Each structure stands twice: as structure tokens, then as C-alpha cells.
């Protein structure tokens, strides 16, 4: 079924604040179809050993306010809207954070992400700011949209608060068709690429910072 974008339309200037605060009450509306964008990851039991890896903890970070909830944000030129009758199973920001934790748990790199309360004294801080997380109808409202994710990653050495790695990254993936499932799959693929890049940036920051000096 071709999706429509008829919940909200507004100018780009007020998109974030207006979209974040609106509640739609439609008693006769069809039930929303639920989707996930979290990539498949290896079970935590099969995660790589933690010995020898450098502990890192999330510090700060943000997620675009208009995209952070459970509604699927789209863009069409200067206008923004949410997909009708389609939602994420949880808030997009929560799903993204869960996917990041799972991706680090399955990583073989030197950086190990620890969660609050987990044993281990972190040596590095990781900040991830997601400034864009949307499906862009750049080829018209009936064509398959392109998912776009923009984020900024900062790795900080905690003992002296020195930034050891910083990257601004962008990822795109076009949906196969203008359908909820296809759009969710495009979000999943773009998110998988984003997570891999975040981990790569973290690993490079840790490896560079702890590398021995001299020969």
C-alpha cells in the first residue's frame, strides 16, 4: 500500500518545535502499522571478550527533536510531515541507543561501550548527536523516499578532557518503494552503516590515544 504523508505539513523553520508538540486525535483512523529500524546483531552471549578492550561511556548527545519520538519523520523540500498510519515500535532515539549498545557488544575493536552501573572505569567518553533522521521525498510524494541520517561523533579522553577524535558523518539509503516496510528497511540499512561508522570512529580514537610513543 502506498503511504501518504497527511498527518502534518509545515514550514521547515518551525518543523522541530511544532512536530514535537502536536497530538493527533483521530477516532476513526486506521491503527498504525509498527516498524523497527534496529539492525540484526549477534546475541550478547556470543559477544567478544572484554579483556584488553578500553572502556568507554556515553556522555551527553542528542537526537533531532522532531524525529526522536515514535512517529516517522519525512521531508519534501521545505515541508516536513509524519507518515500516516505508521510508527516505530518505540521512540526512535531509544531504538537508536539500543542498537548502538548491541553493536558495540558485538564489536571486535578496542573500544568497549559500558553502560551506567556496569563494572569498569571508563577511560573515554563518547558523544553522538543525531541531527537528521528522516525519509526525504526528494523525487516527489509518490516516489520511494531516500532515508538520510546525519550525525556528529566526539571521542574524549576523560583524564584530561582532550578530544581525540571527532567526525561529522552522513548516510543515505533509498527505499525500494513507497511502502512502510520498505522505508523501515532503508532506515535499518542506513542505521547499520551509521553504527559501524560510530564504532570505527571510537576505535580509531582509542587506538590513537593509547598507542605507544616511539619505538
Automatic annotation (TrEMBL):
Signal peptide range: none
What Pfam families does the database record attribute to this sequence? ABC_trans_aux
**UniProt domain ABC-type transport auxiliary lipoprotein component: residue ranges:** 72-198
Cited InterPro entries: ABC_trans_aux
Output the SUPFAM superfamilies linked to this UniProt entry: XCC0632-like (SSF159594)
Q: Write out the coiled-coil annotation as residue ranges.
A: none
- Protein name, UniProt field: ABC transporter
Amino acid at each position: 500500500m502506498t503511504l501518504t504523508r497527511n498527518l502534518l505539513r509545515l514550514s521547515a523553520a518551525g518543523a522541530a518545535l511544532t512536530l514535537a508538540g502536536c497530538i493527533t486525535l483521530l477516532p476513526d483512523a486506521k491503527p498504525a502499522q509498527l516498524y523497527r529500524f534496529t539492525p540484526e546483531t549477534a546475541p550478547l552471549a556470543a559477544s567478544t571478550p572484554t579483556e584488553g578492550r578500553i572502556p568507554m561511556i556515553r556522555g551527553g548527545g542528542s537526537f533531532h527533536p522532531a524525529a526522536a519520538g515514535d512517529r516517522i519523520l519525512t521531508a519534501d523540500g521545505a515541508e516536513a510531515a509524519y507518515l500516516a498510519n505508521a510508527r516505530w515500535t518505540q521512540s526512535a532515539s531509544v531504538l537508536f541507543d539500543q542498537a548502538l549498545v548491541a553493536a558495540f557488544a558485538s564489536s571486535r575493536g578496542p573500544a568497549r561501550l559500558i553502560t551506567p552501573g556496569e563494572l569498569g572505569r571508563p577511560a573515554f567518553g563518547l558523544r553522538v548527536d543525531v541531527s537528521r533522521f528522516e525519509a526525504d521525498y526528494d523525487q516527489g510524494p509518490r516516489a520511494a523516499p531516500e532515508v538520510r541520517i546525519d550525525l556528529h561523533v566526539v571521542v574524549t579522553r576523560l583524564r584530561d578532557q582532550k578530544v581525540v577524535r571527532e567526525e561529522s558523518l552522513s548516510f543515505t539509503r533509498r527505499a525500494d518503494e513507497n511502502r512502510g516496510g520498505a522505508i523501515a528497511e532503508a532506515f535499518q540499512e542506513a542505521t547499520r552503516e551509521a553504527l559501524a561508522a560510530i564504532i570505527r570512529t571510537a576505535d580509531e580514537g582509542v587506538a590513537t590515544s593509547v598507542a605507544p610513543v616511539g619505538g
